[in-house]
Design brief:
heterodimer; A: about 290 residues; mainly alpha; ABC transporter involved in vitamin B12 uptake, BtuC; two-stranded antiparallel sheet; globular; B: about 325 residues; two-stranded antiparallel ribbon; 4 strands; about 5% strand
C-alpha cells in the first residue's frame, strides 16, 4: 500500500511538471529556441507572489491572479525588445542570451531576497487531503494542481487547434517563411507565444511555492524537469508533457522512497534511459504543435 | 597579360608582434614565483585556469558548434579524480593532473553517446542534465564524502611554498599547452575540417569531412582539457564538494568570458578573462552584482556586437595575433 501511495503521489506530481513543461514546449514548437531561463522565470514569479502576500497581506490566489499577467507582460516585452532581435542569426545567440538571463535572474533574486528558502502560505490547503479508502490519501493541493494543468493544456489545445491565431501559430511552426508570405507577422506571434509561456510558467512557479520551499537557485532544476518531461513525452506533443511529467514524477517519488538522496537522480536516470531506448519520446508527432 | 605573383600567407606583422608579446608575457609569468606573493600566485592560477576553461568551451561552441552548458561536469570529475588518484591510490598529486584529464575524457565518451542525440538548444539542456547526474552520483557516494566532499591530503607532507610553486607552474604549463595546442589544432587539416563543419554541416559532409567524428574528437579533447583544469583548480583550493565542483557557475563564468571577448577567436577568451577578472576585483564588495553585470554585458554583446571585444579590435585595426585563416596576397605586377 505504501508503494501504491508513492506511485499516486508521483503521478500527481506530474501535473506540476506538466505546468512547467508546457511553456517550454510551446516556445520550442513555435520558435525552435530553448529558453534556458524558463525555470528562473518560474522562481521569479514565486518570489513576486511571496512579496505580494507579505507586503499587502493578499490571499495567495489573488497574488497568483496578479503575477500571471505581470509575467505574461514581461514575456511579451522581453520577446519584442530582446529576443526578436536575434531572429535569423542561428541557434547560438538565443541560447547564450537566455542562459545569460538565467544567471542574471538568479543573482538578482539572491541580491533582492537573500539566499534564504521561502514558501507561500496557502492557509491549510497544502496539508488537507482526501481519503480514498484503504489507507490511501491524496493531497487536495496536488489534485488541484493536476486539474489546473489539464485546464491549461485543454485551453492551449483549443487555442492552437480552433482559433485564427492558433492557426497562425501552427503555420509559423511548420514554415515561418511561408507563413510570413501569407501575412503573418512572426514577431508579434513570437511575442504572444512568449507571453503565454511565461504566464503558464508563472502559474507553475506559484504552485511550486505553495507546495514546497524554493530559493534563488531553484530555477535550473525546474528547467531540467520541464525539459525531461518534454523529451520523455515526445517533442511537440502537448499532452505528452503530462505523461512525461507523470513518468518523471513517479521516478522521483519511487527513487526518493528507496533512498532519500536518490529522488531527483532517479528522475534524471529514467530520462536518460528513455533517451537511450526511444530518443523521439513516447508520443512524438510529425507535426510540432497539436 | 603579365601573370601576377601571389602567395598564401598566414603570418602577418601583427601576428609576429603578437607571438613576440606572448613570448615576453610568458617570460614574465615564469618569473612570477621569484617576485610574486602567494596570494597573487593563487589569483594567477585562478585566472589561468578560467582562461583554459574558456578556451576549451570556445573550441566546443565557437569552432565545433557544440553549445554545451554542462562543462562543469568535467571540472568536477577532474577535481574528484585528482582526490581519488592522489589520496586513495597514492599516486603523485601533480602527475595525477593529466590522468584526471584522461578520466574526464573517458567518461565523456558514454556521455557523448547520449547527448549527441540532441541538436542545438536541446544539446545545451541535455549536457546540463548529464552534469547534474554526475553531481548527484558523487553526492550519493560515501567514498567520495557525499554532500560534504573531501580534502586533498596527499599534498600535506609538502612544504607550502613547494606546493604553491608546482601548482603555479602546472597551471601555467596547462595554459600554454591549451593555447598552443588549440592553435596548432586549428591550423592543421583537422582544424580546417572543423571550421567547415561549423559553417555548414551538410556542405562539409559532401566534401568528405566526417562530421560526427570531428565533433566527437573536439568533445573528448575539451573534456580532457576541462578535466585537467578541474584537477589544477582543486590542487589550488584543496577542498572539494559536489555543489561547488559541479556548479553551473563554472560554465557561466566561462561563457561570459568567451562571449564578451569574442566567440570563435583565440584572442577573445584572453581579453574576456582579463575583463572578467578586473570586474570581479572591482566589484568584490558587492556580492552577486558582478555576475549580474557580467551577464548583462554578455547579453548586450550578443545583441549589439556578437563578435565581441576582440572582434571590435580586429575590425578597427585589422590585427590577428593568432591567425588561423589563410590570406591571399597578390603582388602588383612590375610596371613596364
Amino acid at each position: 500500500m505504501a508503494w501504491l501511495d508513492t506511485i499516486v503521489q508521483g503521478l500527481l506530481l506530474g501535473g506540476l511538471y506538466a505546468l512547467f513543461a508546457t511553456g517550454l514546449s510551446l516556445i520550442f514548437g513555435v520558435m525552435r529556441i530553448v529558453n534556458l531561463a524558463h525555470g528562473d522565470f518560474s522562481i521569479l514569479a514565486a518570489f513576486l507572489a511571496v512579496m505580494l502576500v507579505d507586503a499587502l497581506a493578499l490571499h495567495w490566489l489573488l497574488a497568483l491572479a496578479l503575477v500571471v499577467p505581470a509575467m505574461a507582460l514581461l514575456g511579451y516585452v522581453l520577446q519584442r525588445t530582446v529576443l526578436n532581435r536575434l531572429l535569423g542569426r542561428g541557434i547560438l545567440p538565443p541560447i547564450l542570451v537566455t542562459f545569460g538571463l538565467s544567471i542574471i535572474i538568479q543573482n538578482a533574486l539572491l541580491e533582492a531576497f537573500s539566499a534564504d528558502s521561502r514558501r507561500l502560505n496557502p492557509g491549510g490547503i497544502d496539508t488537507a487531503s482526501l481519503a480514498l479508502g484503504g489507507g490511501l490519501a491524496v493531497g487536495w493541493f496536488s489534485l488541484i494542481t493536476l486539474l489546473v494543468a489539464i485546464v491549461v493544456l485543454t485551453g492551449l489545445q483549443i487555442f492552437i487547434g480552433r482559433t485564427q491565431r492558433g492557426r497562425a501559430f501552427r503555420a509559423t511552426a511548420d514554415d515561418q517563411a511561408t507563413a510570413a508570405l501569407m501575412g503573418i507577422d512572426p514577431r508579434g506571434l513570437y511575442a504572444l507565444a512568449m507571453a503565454l509561456s511565461l504566464g503558464i510558467v508563472a502559474i507553475a512557479g506559484v504552485f511550486l511555492g505553495v507546495r514546497t520551499t524554493f530559493a534563488f537557485g531553484s530555477g535550473p532544476d525546474r528547467l531540467l524537469f520541464a525539459f525531461e518531461a518534454v523529451i520523455i513525452g515526445g517533442l511537440g506533443s502537448l499532452w505528452g508533457t503530462l505523461v512525461g511529467g507523470a513518468i518523471l514524477g513517479v521516478a522521483q517519488t519511487v527513487g526518493a522512497k528507496l533512498s532519500p538522496g536518490w529522488g531527483i537522480l532517479t528522475g534524471h536516470l529514467v530520462f536518460l534511459a528513455v533517451l537511450l531506448v526511444r530518443p523521439q519520446g513516447l508520443f512524438a508527432r510529425q507535426r510540432r504543435l497539436d | 597579360m603579365t601573370p601576377r605573383s601571389f602567395r598564401v600567407q598566414r603570418m602577418t606583422r601583427a601576428s609576429r608582434l603578437g607571438l613576440g608579446g606572448a613570448a615576453l608575457a610568458l617570460v614574465g609569468l615564469i618569473t612570477v614565483p621569484l617576485w610574486g606573493d602567494p596570494a597573487g600566485m593563487r589569483r594567477l592560477v585562478e585566472l589561468i585556469t578560467l582562461l583554459v576553461l574558456a578556451q576549451m568551451w570556445n573550441l566546443l561552441a565557437g569552432y565545433a558548434g557544440l553549445l554545451s552548458i554542462g562543462q562543469q561536469a568535467y571540472v568536477g570529475l577532474g577535481g574528484y579524480a585528482l582526490i581519488v588518484l592522489a589520496d586513495d591510490l597514492g599516486l603523485d598529486p601533480f602527475l595525477s593532473v593529466p590522468l584526471a584529464g584522461l578520466i574526464a575524457a573517458a567518461l565523456a565518451l558514454p556521455t557523448a553517446a547520449l547527448v549527441f542525440r540532441f541538436q542545438g538548444g536541446y544539446f545545451a539542456v541535455g549536457t546540463w542534465a548529464v552534469a547534474e547526474v554526475f553531481r548527484l552520483l558523487v553526492a550519493n557516494t560515501g567514498a567520495l564524502g557525499r554532500g560534504t566532499g573531501r580534502t586533498l591530503k596527499a599534498v600535506f607532507p609538502l612544504a607550502r611554498e613547494t606546493r604553491e610553486m608546482v601548482t603555479y607552474f602546472l597551471a601555467l604549463a596547462l595554459g600554454v599547452a591549451a593555447l598552443v595546442g588549440i592553435y596548432a589544432f586549428l591550423r592543421a587539416r583537422f582544424g580546417l575540417g572543423l571550421m567547415a563543419v561549423r559553417d555548414s554541416e551538410g556542405a562539409s559532409e559532401t566534401l568528405g569531412v566526417d562530421v560526427f567524428r570531428t565533433k566527437l574528437a573536439v568533445y573528448l579533447l575539451a573534456a580532457f582539457g576541462t578535466g585537467a583544469t578541474g584537477a589544477v583548480i582543486y590542487l589550488n583550493l584543496l577542498r572539494i564538494s559536489p555543489d561547488a565542483a559541479f556548479s553551473i557557475n563554472w560554465t557561466a563564468a566561462t561563457i561570459f568570458i568567451v562571449v564578451i571577448g569574442g566567440i570563435g577567436t583565440l584572442e577573445g577568451p584572453l581579453i574576456g578573462a582579463l575583463v572578467f577578472f578586473v570586474l570581479r576585483e572591482l566589484l568584490a564588495d558587492f556580492g552577486a552584482w558582478y555576475m549580474i553585470l557580467l551577464g548583462s554585458l554578455a547579453v548586450s554583446v550578443m545583441l549589439v556586437y556578437p563578435q565581441g571585444l576582440w572582434g571590435l579590435i580586429a575590425k578597427r585595426w585589422d590585427v590577428h595575433f593568432f591567425p588561423v585563416q589563410r590570406r591571399l596576397e597578390i603582388d602588383e605586377p612590375p610596371r613596364p
